[in-house]
C-alpha cells in the first residue's frame, strides 16, 4: 500500500533530523568534557560517548525510519599526562585524561550537521513539490 508521499518523505526526514540532533548533543558533550579529569587521585576521567543508529520499519508510513539504537561509552584506554598539581594526580604526578579526540569529535559534528541539513533539504523540496503540484492543479 502506498501512502501519502509527502507524509512519507517528511516522516523519514524528520526521523533523520531527530537522530542527528541526538548525535550532535552527544558530540557536544564529548567536546565539553575533553579535559574533564577525575576529582580524586587515580580517579577515572570522563569517558567518550557514542551514538548507534538503527533502522526501524514504520507501517503507517510504509517506509523505514532512523532511530537512535543506543548511547554507549567508548571503552578505549585513557591517556596519561604528567600534571602533579592536578587533584586527580596519583603519587607520581600522573593524571588519566579523557579518551576524547577533539579533532575527531569536530569531524563527527560536521558530518552530523551535514546529515541534518540534507534531511532538512528533503523536507523543503517535498514542500516545494507539493506547492508546485497545487499550482498546476489551480491553473486552467
Shape label:
elongated
| Mean pLDDT metric | 92
SSE run? HEEEEH
Biggest sheet strand line-up: 1-2
**Through-space gap between termini:** 31 Å
What's the gyration radius in Å? 22 Å
Proportion of residues in helical segments:
40-55%
Biggest beta-sheet profile: 2 strands, antiparallel
| Residue share in β-strands | 15-25%
Structural class: alpha+beta
Number of helices: 2
Count the domains.
1
Stretches where pLDDT is under 50 for at least 5 consecutive residues are none
Number of DSSP strands? 4
Layout: helices, strands, pairs:
Blueprint: H1 5-32, E1 49-58, E2 63-73, E3 79-82, E4 94-97, H2 102-138
Antiparallel strand pairs: 1-2, 3-4
Provide a descriptive summary of the structure in words:
By secondary structure, the chain is of the alpha+beta class. It has one domain. 46% of the residues lie in helices and 21% in strands. It is built from two helices and four strands, in the order αββββα. The protein has helices at residues 5-32, 102-138, and strands at 49-58, 63-73, 79-82, 94-97. The strands form two sheets. Strands 1-2 form a two-stranded antiparallel sheet. It has a two-stranded antiparallel ribbon with strand order 3-4. A hairpin with a 4-residue loop joins strand 1 and strand 2. It is elongated.
What are the key terms here?
140 residues, alpha+beta, 4 strands, two-stranded antiparallel ribbon, elongated, single chain, 21% strand
Give a short summary of the structure.
The chain is an alpha+beta fold. The protein has helices at 5-32, 102-138; strands spanning 49-58, 63-73, 79-82, 94-97.
Amino acid at each position: 500500500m502506498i501512502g501519502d508521499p509527502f507524509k512519507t518523505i517528511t516522516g523519514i526526514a524528520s526521523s533523520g533530523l531527530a537522530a542527528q540532533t541526538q548525535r550532535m548533543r552527544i558530540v557536544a558533550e564529548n567536546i565539553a568534557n575533553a579535559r574533564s579529569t577525575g576529582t580524586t587521585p587515580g580517579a577515572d576521567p570522563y569517558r567518550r560517548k557514542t551514538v548507534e543508529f538503527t533502522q526501524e520499519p514504520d507501517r503507517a508510513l510504509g517506509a523505514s525510519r532512523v532511530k537512535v539504537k543506543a548511547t554507549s561509552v567508548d571503552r578505549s584506554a585513557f591517556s596519561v599526562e604528567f600534571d602533579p598539581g592536578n587533584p586527580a594526580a596519583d603519587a607520581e604526578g600522573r593524571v588519566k585524561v579523557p579518551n576524547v579526540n577533539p579533532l575527531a569529535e569536530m569531524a563527527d559534528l560536521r558530518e552530523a550537521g551535514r546529515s541534518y541539513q540534507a534531511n532538512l533539504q528533503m523536507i523543503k523540496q517535498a514542500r516545494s513539490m507539493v506547492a508546485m503540484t497545487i499550482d498546476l492543479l489551480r491553473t486552467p
